[in-house]
Amino acid sequence: MTSTSEKPAVNGVNVEALLGARIALGDTPEAGKFTWRATNEWLHGTHSRSSVAGYFGLGEEHEHKATFGFESDHPLVFAAEDNAATPVEIVLVGLASCLTAGVAAVAQNRDIQLRSVKATVEGDMDIQGILGVDADIRNGFSDIRVTYDIDADASPNDIEALVAQSQKRSAVFDILTNPTNVTVQVS
Amino acid sequence: MRATTVVVGAGHAGLAVSHYLAACSIDHVLIERGEVANSWRTERWDSLTLLTPNWQARVPGLAYDGDDPDGFMDVSEVVSFIERYARLVGPSLETHTNVESVRQNGAGYQVVTDRGVWHAPTVVLATGACNIPKVPAFAADLPGSIASCTPMDYSNPSALPNGGVLVVGASASGVQIAEEVHASGRPVTLAVGEHVRMPRTYRGKDILWWMDRTGLHDERYDEVDDIKRARRVPAPQLVGKPERTTLDLNALTEQGVRLVGRFAGIADGKAQFSGSLRNKCALADLKLGRLLDTIDEWIDDEGLDGEVEPACRFPPTRVEDSPPLTLDFAEHGIRTAIWATGFEADHSWLDLPVLDHKGRLRHDGGVVSESPGLYRIGLNFLRRRKSSFIHGAADDARDLVGHLAAAIGAPGPGKGGSA
Questions:
Q1: Are residues A91 and A44 in the same domain?
Q2: Are strands B122-125 and B374-376 parallel, antiparallel or unpaired?
């Protein structure tokens, strides 16, 4: 990859640690098995609060530096109170956050200095699906579009390649583009 | 039975190793489960041609000398070429002998075959890179009415049921099979994951000619950024036809083949495809652009700009606005699935602690360091980008025989000897 600056790029991503982890996992694949967790509690109406405190990985339990909270609700047009973002919007947030993290990591690895990275995400949905009006219409998104506006020390082709590689390595992109078995049960 | 070296496999790579072993006066035997060039005789579809041009068919001591250097050999011509090479090298050869295991035996090895046991201090595995078709586990969930095969047991379109065909995988085998099956009147849907797009010719020359001339094919395994990834790169979308046509996804779309995303699973009798098709195509287009940039820069550096056709770029891969994410086999009249999802080398018969958790051989450029005296040739990017090509065997065989000779205190093969 080309970089127009002489100085090494500083994007704040510890690529050496990530590459080291990849080599280490080649020898101990078990350590790569992570379990991510969230809890969610109903508040009122369609309003609920989720929290994320810890996860399992590298063979042991970990705690985040703090317990992170997320609220979610539905909008006024759904006759709800709109106390917080809609769950499907949180999914879009997850996708954009994951892709942007990937752009930064790949840029660091390719020694590309980023100045600004902005993404706009749109997801199309026909609510006839969730309302059960038309069985041929799915509940979820019919199409998701992400548009990146990136200012970096790199050619347009190299920026395109950053964004393409970020999708290739993204967990949330994979989650949204491939099927996943989901089991929901009552304890 | 004893030999200094047992070579397992009598294809072009095993014979190239034999050529250099003989040059070093190292006594050896080639053990072959069938006849010389066995996989070419038994595991290739009818219309297959090499994707490398004839001029590139060169092994140590023999180079293509026919009258069509820019043409492409069909399977029978490849078999004849390797047979001719076998006569030239003239090794001690045990055909129709199946190696059942290789075991440690003191400082050397025991090579157990169905026709006796060989004892040798050194063993070279030349058993090919494509022993087992890789088919995803969910293939078992295909509806019972759907016929399925892999490129290894596919022969020609007329052997398939009439009706639609889902070809899974868009590397060399997948695109070649998709084209001929679609042309037979069986409409093809092609599931596309990661792939390598290449034009057949660029600036008036074969793309592989450029890869040779620019040194890309000679790039070494210890020079690339990420050798694990480089070894996983699938075979390029190339086909060897006299007209030297390009067989990329746009060419297939023009012929009426429908592109869908990577085949991700089967649920309720329906195929599910990944929504990543656009990005897979973007990645391949960008990678092709970088390859052409490299070639253009080389031409520029060499001052050859005026002597070859001008630089050009190819249109991006066309992807329909909303490629289907599911496909009902019955509704779409799909009668056959062809799993062109790659191959892997089979090392399960090695009774030695040299395999990783996925059953892959751990080696350093073909030298199995954990098991001194054991070598492997003929894997993807074993020592060089060209390692899996026929013409890639020469340099690798010379290097590995050099290492082997040094290990047993014999004089090496030197630099010469290649055609």
A1: no
A2: parallel
